[in-house]
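FIELD: query
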Amino acid sequence: MPSSEQTAERALARQKAWATGLVVLCALVFVAARSLEPRYGALAWVAAFAEAAIIGALADWYAVVALFRHPLGLKLPHTAIIPSNQAKIADEIGAFIARHFLAGERIAERIVELDPAAIAGRWLAQPANRERAVAQAEREALRDELGILEGLGELLAAPEAQAAIRERIRAELPTLARLFQADAYVLAKLMAAAQSLLDEVQADPAHPLRAELRGFVLGRLEDFLASAAERLQGDEAFRARLNRWLATRAGALTEAYKHEVAAFVSTQVKSWDARRAVRAIELAIGKDLQYIRVNGTLVGGLIGLALFGATRLL
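FIELD: result
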């Protein structure tokens, strides 16, 4: 199966052949009309049309070719416009995108119009979608399980966490704290036991606590997603708040980075190989530009015919 580029090249070649063939036809008609004009005076009108059509076709051919390269290899002023102005075009494209596509206010308005909260609610309302989300979370959890366990160990060793646990011991086990006369002793024992258990779980991939922890987290996640779907579908005020929050953040983010995006686009366009860039643009719009040549041929002929008629009347 031909690629899209090959298809575009064939379409462009066909259109070029059609436009060029029309010029050749007009040239043949002009020669024939001029040759037979002494015998058939009315052919002067045909010759006038064909002559003007050739002029119009050549003028438009020059204009179209001058966009991409130097016509006939002649480095005339204001030709090869696209490759000669690649840097300027790159900057203009970047600025155009930033100005018209990355306006924070418009982005925010569009997000509100799209109502992403409702879209998310409908998606989460489908059990199959929730199952896929949980399955993806489970795969991520399996990859990150060791890191999570290490994080728990670091959390238990943090002074802030130990202080919170100490306060909890005092609140929940006041008698035990008084019995030992020092909650630090109880805390140290608890921390040592917890760390020992975590070390065991980390060392044993088949430890039952891994499966229990995973099942607990994924079960909570499934419940959370179901609850979120219900609220997103049933609470219009919540959806509106969520949409406004998303719109505000997206708009602010767009405004903050739109110039960086414009600079990135500009840099990318400048980095393109000039010949490849010209070829890509020509394949994208060249077919339509060939219609300009065809129209120039026909319109030029009609104008020439009108002028010829006007001179006859004067």
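FIELD: remark
The chain is about 90% helix and 0% strand.
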